[in-house]
């Protein structure tokens, strides 16, 4: 079983930002796009 903290919480931060960005976009808050873009950067740069 893989350690849930193997990526120092970056994966938890990325999924949290993804969900929050989707929530904001669903409520038509434009800053949700930026939050979602930042979460994608975390997925691309920091994830193995």
Number of strands: 0
Distance between the termini: 17 Å
Helix content: 55-70%
Q: Tell me, rounded to a whole number, the average pLDDT.
A: 85
Would you give an account of this structure?
The protein has 48 residues and is an all-alpha fold. The chain has one domain (10-46). Helix content is 69%, strand content 0%. It has helices spanning 10-26, 31-46. Helix 1 (10-26) packs antiparallel against helix 2 (31-46). The mean pLDDT is 85.
Question: Could you give a short description of this structure?
Answer:
The protein has helices at residues 10-26, 31-46.
Outline the secondary-structure elements.
Blueprint: H1 10-26, H2 31-46
Key features of this structure:
48 residues
